[in-house]
Amino acid sequence: MSNRMTLQEAQDQVVEEFALIADWQDRYEQIIESAKDLPRIDPEKKVDANLVNGCQSRVWLAAERRDGTIHLSADSDALITKGLVALLVRVLNDRTPEEILGTPITFIERIGLREHLSPTRSNGLASMLDQIKRYALAFGAKEEQR
Amino acid sequence: MTAHTGTLTGTGYDVKAVRACFPILEERVHGKPLVYLDNAATGQKPQQVIDVVETYYRSINANVHRGVHTLSNLATDAQESAREAVRRHINARHAHEVIFTQGTTSALNMAAYGLGSLLLKPGDEVLISTMEHHANLVPWQMACERHGAGLKVIPITDEGELEPEIGRFLTERTRILAITHASNTLGTVNPVKEIVAEARKHGITTVVDGAQAVPHMAVDVQDIGCDIYVFSGHKMFAPTGIGVLYGREEVLDRMPPWQGGGEMIDRVTFAKTTYAKLPFKLEAGTPHIAGIVGLGEAVRWMAAHDLRAMAAHEARLLEHATRELGAIDGLRIVGTARNKVGVASFVIEGVHHYDLGTLLDQQGVAVRTGHHCTQPLLARLGLEGTTRASFAPFNTMEEVDVLVAATRKAVKMLR
């Protein structure tokens, strides 16, 4: 894992990819494209207990511990939402709780999707990010107890 | 795409003049001209309504019915002249049959609390319909729970009309019938006059939710014959936070107040309080005076326009939208009742309404997506949500074309 990008580098990479996109249509096409990169979620994890609150579409977000990191899997029944959660998973997946909690997540604002981050937005992107941070807090605390 | 003859649609209806009343229509969204098709959620406000609210705060503001000073008297006059304007607008017999509320939801809560206490005994029934907004469902459910009564539901057809012959659903235990005049999700206009007449034959108290009807038609509460008729100001060109509960005097006189305090009292002792006369008995606390004044002005704005011509214009918009949207591959209009207000709800195969709403917004088009506060209705139709375009007298045929083109573009991106 040592040759892997840091969370910060992964964010910067997403920002670079979106930087060249000028118009809304291409930006949303890129988000929709991202949805296709999201690994298929295990059907057993697509349960109500993993639903994220506050979304107009349904979003499932599951986490498990793997070798001290958090492995995320997600899905949504709406494509744009799925694309947004795919970007989150791409940047935050398989990282330690410390890295997730210690790095400010700024790429969403930086790719011009700040409007999607407001807690009042019905896509629930803010809720998804909160959920990932809660997983990180919970798993991080368990690590310390060991 | 169909060509339209500018702003005049060959009918004499001057949509350009109507548009000029609404300053918000000059706004741009994501760099594109705003196409506002979310009128069933909340309507836009004419300049004269905005002005009257501003003038109220600038030069009249004082509490009503309390002070002896000049401003208080001016504010009271402004409020009571608005009440009279609303009375005239809905053709109520008396101004004191017009109760100001926060909106339709609070009016229905007042009705459910008051009529529930007055009428419901264990085993009694309240009858609503499948197409009710949650505001005309949950308060009755709560009243039924309080009084041990049952909630019964009139089913609908696949087209979104009430099952015919309403009499079949009335029982000996039916005490209250609460039904919507027009469906916010489907646009269906219910034959409330006939329904109310049937219910009254059996001595059933009738409540009509007019929130989606009043923006589109002249409503005559005496002609409908219902005991209670409720609506919101904000959907009919008035400010938010103000609504009306109209009730027949005989019913309101007997109905216990929902909230206590403020102006609703006659005399208060620690042992017992006697209540004020109508309408004040049902208006506890300082009212939303600016909202009331704004509602009065909105009603005057409507009175100055030809509501029939506006309704005909909206019908043409709906017809055009239904035809053009319907031509999109995989799109299905939800709600195909024979009699509809300007509401086009639809679903598209393989396209989530949230995605569509987001991409329409990017193109300057404002629509509503989701369950529209009618979850049991959507469950009946086997849907999780729809995209809803809802029209106002200021919308144009060209805007419908923008909606259709924007929808086509979004579908292309999402498939």
Structural account:
The complex is a heterodimer of chains A (146) and B (415). Chain A has one domain (7-145): Sufe protein. Chain: A (Alpha-Beta Complex), CATH 3.90.1010.10. Chain A has helices spanning 7-19, 24-37, 79-92, 97-102, 107-110, 125-145, and strands at 59-66, 69-76. With 146 residues, chain A is mainly alpha-helical. Chain A starts with 6 loop residues before the first helix and ends with a helix. In chain A, helix 2 (24-37) packs across helix 3 and helix 3 (79-92) runs parallel beside helix 6. The model of chain A has no long low-confidence stretch (mean pLDDT 87). Chain A contains six helices and two strands; from the N terminus they run ααββαααα. In chain A, a hairpin with a 2-residue loop joins strand 1 (59-66) and strand 2. By secondary structure, chain B is an alpha/beta fold. Chain B folds into two domains: 15-39 and 306-414, Aspartate Aminotransferase, domain 1; 50-303, 3-Layer(aba) Sandwich (Aspartate Aminotransferase, domain 2). In chain B, 38% of the residues lie in helices and 17% in strands. Chain B has helices at residues 15-19, 47-60, 70-90, 104-119, 138-147, 192-201, 221-224, 249-254, 289-303, 307-326, 353-362, 375-381, 397-414, and strands at 28-29, 32-33, 35-36, 98-101, 125-129, 150-154, 174-180, 205-209, 228-232, 243-247, 265-268, 273-275, 331-334, 343-348, 365-366, 368-370, 386-390. In chain B, the strands form five sheets. A seven-stranded mixed sheet of chain B has the order 4-10-9-8-7-5-6, with helices on both faces. Chain B has a four-stranded antiparallel sheet with strand order 13-14-17-16, with helices on one face. A two-stranded antiparallel sheet of chain B has the order 1-2. In chain B, helix 3 packs across helix 9 and helix 4 runs parallel beside helix 5 (138-147). The model of chain B has no long low-confidence stretch (mean pLDDT 95). Chains A and B meet through helix 2 and helix 3 of A and helix 11 and helix 13 of B.
